């Protein structure tokens, strides 16, 4: 470890200790208020958006639990918290709509506190709107200073004024904050933050900041701690995990990080997302092929099959390179499950461009594809582009793509029909007595079971493929 890394670790430890002191201060105020009211104080936390947001919400929930609040699903709580997403304009509108409802709740309970944080809060025009239109919101902060939540919450407890604390960026990564996991047996693990890709349709680099990788020692330490606590599956998270390690004082590749995690006792499955095709190396493919723990599932966003459109999107690969990459992956890992993201109706997309996308879908054999109609996102280069595709044209293309995706997905996913697969049981479905789990290929399986199976690996006979999921039956000896 270099002197620079040691200095960074010391600063991280100091900040962690500082935030823990604010947790204790906030805990004292919470206990006093709880005694006055004669009941426990409650909070409701809602997360909008991606798995990165889910992971950050776990930190906020962990701190709230430490402070002494009890979580509930009902928004008639003492504190309501929204972790916001801004990947599409509709996400912003959803939050504004729900703030109107919260205003009515706060009219009934003036002591109620409302907190907004996350990606949406990194947009200056949003913060100005919150200040002017929603002054009843108590605390606003962004994506770069979530580690300060305990401090900000303590300040809010003592203030009648709206507190706004937005950072334009940071190179700080603060470790070892409290976390309240959503599951006892699986967990997300952030390995990096931010994005340097600047795809022309995407707001993420502007609200998440530049790429910052966690030190590998910190990641290994966290995963070891999780495994010791009963977690058998981890999902490594980053906007582009394939570029992990490039910003470190002592650079480490993503493949090398995976090899460090391979030997952790108690860890059975390793997943990761998202992978950018331009950075997916032969080293990573080889590491996946020889690993006994990395799941044979890879989410590899295509976005478009047209080399011309990919260039305008600033994706930095073309159709031929993408297809070659898929061929190399399938050669090394024949049973790999591939999934993808595709945007339809990007500005300037012609019928010829769209046919190129259909061609890639037909050739790649995706288990599933997440398809999206292009949605103009303000403050991105694509929003100002000419030749915006008419909605009726985009929708017609979308329907054709969806039909092909479903056809190919059924064909590809059904390859496991009649086989017995190991499934990690995750939860009970809405139908009583029917449980849901995933194979290592990330395929959903629904089967009859009981609560004692939750968090366990069981062998399930895949009776019938229903497109993107299976109906199955537990093997008799389970």
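^ structure tokens above, recovered residues below v
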């Amino acid at each position: 470890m270099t002197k620079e890394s040691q200095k960074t670790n010391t600063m991280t430890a100091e900040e962690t200790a500082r935030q823990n002191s604010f947790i204790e201060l906030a805990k004292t105020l919470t206990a006093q208020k709880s005694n006055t009211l004669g009941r426990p104080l409650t909070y409701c936390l809602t997360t909008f958006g991606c798995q990165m947001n889910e992971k950050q919400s776990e930190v906020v929930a962990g701190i709230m639990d430490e402070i002494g609040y009890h979580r509930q699903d009902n928004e008639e709580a003492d504190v309501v918290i929204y972790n916001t997403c801004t990947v599409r304009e509709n996400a912003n509108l959803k939050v504004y709509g729900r703030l109107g409802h919260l205003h009515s709740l706060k009219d009934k309970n003036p002591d109620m506190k409302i907190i907004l944080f996350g990606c949406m809060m990194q947009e200056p025009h949003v913060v100005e709107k919150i200040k002017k239109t929603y002054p009843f919101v108590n605390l606003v902060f962004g994506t770069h200073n979530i580690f300060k939540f305990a401090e900000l919450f303590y300040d809010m407890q003592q203030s009648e004024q709206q507190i706004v604390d937005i950072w334009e960026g940071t190179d700080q990564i603060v470790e070892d904050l409290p976390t309240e996991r959503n599951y006892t047996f699986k967990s997300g693990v952030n390995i990096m933050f931010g994005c340097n890709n600047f795809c022309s349709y995407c707001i993420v680099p502007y609200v998440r900041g530049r790429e910052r990788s966690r030190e590998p020692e910190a990641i290994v330490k966290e995963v070891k701690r999780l495994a010791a606590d009963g977690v058998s599956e981890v999902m490594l998270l980053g906007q582009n995990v394939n570029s992990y390690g490039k910003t470190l004082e002592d650079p480490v590749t993503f493949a090398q990080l995976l090899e460090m995690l391979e030997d952790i006792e108690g860890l059975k499955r390793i997943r990761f997302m998202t992978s950018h095709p331009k950075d997916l190396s032969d080293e990573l493919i080889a590491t996946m092929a020889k690993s006994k723990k990395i799941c044979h599932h890879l989410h590899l966003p295509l976005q478009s099959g047209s080399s011309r459109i990919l260039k305008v999107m600033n994706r930095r690969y073309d159709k031929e390179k993408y297809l070659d990459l898929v061929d190399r992956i399938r050669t090394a890992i024949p049973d790999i499950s591939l999934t993808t993201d595709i945007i339809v109706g990007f500005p300037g997309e012609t019928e010829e461009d769209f046919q190129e996308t259909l061609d890639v879908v037909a050739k790649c054999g995706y288990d599933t594809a997440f398809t999206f109609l292009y949605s103009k996102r303000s403050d991105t280069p694509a929003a100002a582009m000419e030749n915006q595709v008419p909605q009726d044209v985009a929708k017609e293309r979308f329907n054709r793509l969806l039909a092909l995706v479903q056809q190919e997905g059924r064909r590809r996913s059904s390859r496991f029909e009649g086989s017995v697969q190991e499934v990690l049981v995750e939860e009970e479905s809405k139908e009583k007595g029917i449980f849901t789990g995933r194979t290592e290929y990330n395929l959903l399986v629904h089967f009859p079971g009981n609560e004692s199976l939750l968090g366990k690996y069981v062998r399930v006979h895949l009776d019938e493929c229903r497109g993107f999921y299976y109906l199955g039956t537990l093997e008799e000896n389970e």
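The first strand starts at residue 42 and ends at 47.
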